[in-house]
Amino acid sequence: MTLPVYEVLSDEVGHSGDGDLLKAYGGAIALGGTGITVTVNFVATPDGVIALNGSAKAVSFGDPADRLLMGMLRASADALLVGASTLRQDSRHQWVPWSAFPDAKEQLLALRQESGRAATPPPLVVVTASGDLPADHPALVAPETDVVIVTTAKGARALPSTPSRVRVHTVVGDTVAMPELIAAVHSEAGAATILCEGGPHLFGQLLDARLVDELFLTIAPQLSGHDGTTPRPSLVEGVAFDVDGTPRLRLRSVRRAASHLFLRYAVDEARRAALTT
User: Fold this and answer.
1) CA–CA separation, 151 vs 62, rounded Å?
2) Burial of 109 (0-12, 13-18, 19+ CB in 10 A)
3) Taking phi first (over 0 means left), then psi (-120 to 50 degrees means alpha), and beta for anything else, what does residue 62 get?
């Protein structure tokens, strides 16, 4: 197996740990921190599009370095969080670390254990207010990890039948508020370090609630454009921040593999610090 190698252009995180994956990455992943943390991972074009024809792979070209980073982030998290639209759009996917890069399954498992986590894959948490989930999705019918569905009482009644490995957490009200969602992930999945893989509406809601700590953003070398008729979802949807309220980013690391860029940002540090003091 040949691993992609990342050229490190800048990195404040530094290096910790050994193993083939971290040597290829050229540093530490080191997710988490004090208390519950939320990290978000996306791939986008330079003009901000995150899916073409409903596919993120069409944006990234299925780039091995992007896929491996996805696997390493999953291996380093306590739980994965996705919105219902993300689950529906990837109709065959299992959200476990090695599904992103199957040839590195043993190395991803070792990375997970080196970070002090269980040998099992992190639980998957799916949020849906309506309960509109595909009854035949493999992540719900034959999941490779524990699954928690966070939904409303109305949504719970609409959910398809699922095996015992899938649990349902019902919130009060007609919507799933973001603080309640993160609290549910923590209580149901035992998660302090949460990795969110979208979609853009969920990311927007988490940003609006000031609950995002870090963003891993892969910039793919293509331009998509917008014509007003072809769906071109952007990185953040469903919310528009005013000038004084826009979340600010601080660059933590930059890597390159061929023409793909891999950016790591801290999100809105000053504002989040103010909220917790």
Assistant:
1) 31
2) middle
3) left
- pLDDT per residue as tens digits for the range 24-75: 999 999 999 889 999 999 999 999 999 998 889 999 999 999 999 999 999 9
User: What's the CA gap between 4 and 148, in Å, rounded?
Assistant: 33
The answer for residues whose C-beta is within 8 angstroms of residue 182's C-beta and 6 or more apart is 36, 38, 194, 211
The pTM (predicted TM-score) of the whole model is 0.95
CA atoms within 13 A on the CB side of 77: 29
DSSP character for 49?
B
Q: Which two tokens stand for residue 70?
A: 């996805």
- Buried b / exposed e across 27-59, counting CB within 10 Å, b at 16+? bbbebbeeebbbbbbbbbbeeebbbbeeebeeb
CA distance 263 to 40: 12
Name the packing angle between helices 64-75 and 105-114 (round to 10°). Answer: 40
